[in-house]
Amino acid sequence: MKKINNFSTYSKSIPSDTKRFWSGLLLVLSPWILLFIITSLISHHSVLMSTPFWNDEISYWHEVLSFSSKGFNFGYYTMDEMTPKLLSFGTHGFGTISIYAAYAKIFGWNYNSIVIANNVFLSLSFLFLVLYLKPTTSKTLLITVFYLTYTPLILYCSTSMSELLNFALLINYFILLYSYIKSDRKKNKLFYILIVFCSIISFVRIIYIVLFLPIILYRDFVLKFDRKTILLLAGWIFLSFFLFLANSLFVSPFPYSFLNELFSISNLHNFIIYFVRHLITNILRFIYPFRDDFIQVFQRYIVISSTIWLVLKSRVFRFSHHQIEPLYFSSFLLISLSLIITFAAYDVFNWRDYRVMAPLLFGIVLLFILSDRLFAVKSFLLINVFVLLFLCFSPKVYSSFLFESKRYSNPLSNVVLNKIKYTENVKNKFENTLVVDSYDENVFLKTPAGIGITQSDSISDNLQSKYIYIHKPKKFETYQLVIISGNNFLYQKRLRRQ
What we know:
By secondary structure, the chain is mainly alpha-helical. It has 2 domains: about 15-40 and about 110-400, no CATH class; about 415-495. The protein is built from 19 helices and 5 strands. A 5-stranded mixed sheet has the order 2-1-3-5-4. A hairpin with a 2-residue loop joins strand 4 (about 480-485) and strand 5 (about 490-495). Helix 5 packs parallel to helix 8, helix 8 runs antiparallel to helix 9 (about 185-200) and helix 15 runs antiparallel to helix 16 (about 350-370). It is globular, with a radius of gyration of 25 Å. The termini are far apart.
């Protein structure tokens, strides 16, 4: 007891500013601490050897390489040469690519750049939190512990996916939202800052249009459903529709996506039937416990239980808006509307719903920590512990995320790709486009900057791209063979006769 009392006395003797400084520094460094634990202590690799591997990772990486090197003068990143209405960005649009390209302009672009950039963005977000909100030591430590034990962050921190970027964006959003909730003099200024910020990040993920709702609901210190609120909600619907249309201008169509197939149906009856069938399928997939691995399923049930708990805590069933708890009600709206959009417009499988909901849940817990809702925070921390235990018994999950050896190996050299040349100031961007028949990290990571990469299952003379790279020989009339190396074949478009 004496030792404990001595420690307690020593702790109390430390000035509060000193505690706040060190706890803040720990929070700012927590992304790097987690990254070091995952890459060095668990995977036994170095973050400096990180290399994009999954399809989305290599697509992000090469598109950023081209945009940061050539500006807007790069080839098409498409599926089956289905081009966007404007520019030549791929199926992910230009929001995510632009943020990474800004980083690349400052620090350069290497194979490990997305992993490092992600953690830089998170550290800067936490630095903003510490400097702007000046949270207490206990709140800062709670955020740090929650970050270090949150399974989605553990799984994705060493990947070249854009998940950590989305975490960083939502951390900044909830920092501004909390300040907006508590502010009096700066409320109007923060209102417009949040509107602009949410508009910008909706080009990263269009589902972020739901983030406007708490801004509207918190325009006063109490929840109001008056004429002004109704007008603001109508404005939100209009703005969301505008942002969706604007975003779609820069996104290459994904031929196998639900929305692409839905809007290709001209018959109204078939349109409705297809939509309803997709919606019901997604809902059933979400609640069915045996379809996907346990980590995905467990988060889905966390989302369901959190939604029910939030609607009960918000007291919406008391039929009086004066009794509604805005914090819980706003959180309920964010989760439920995100779920509805996911069910209605996207897919529930292959970690897609997991990746959408994980950053949002983290942001809501962050808001609870800042708002002193300790019961909710302790509950989510307990859930973190359970999920970590379940992760230990999910070898398929942690092996694919944490122990994939190709994630730490340099791409293989390929002499075939040396024959591909980028051309300045072309009139048709297909002049700087390569068609491939499969996603191959060695091809994506070795193709010259500025050469757009299109994946197609239909390799034929009907293609418009200048180059075709395939693994089996094929006869063409409009393409000529440039080089063969093993089972790698490069074809180039024949020059048209004048």
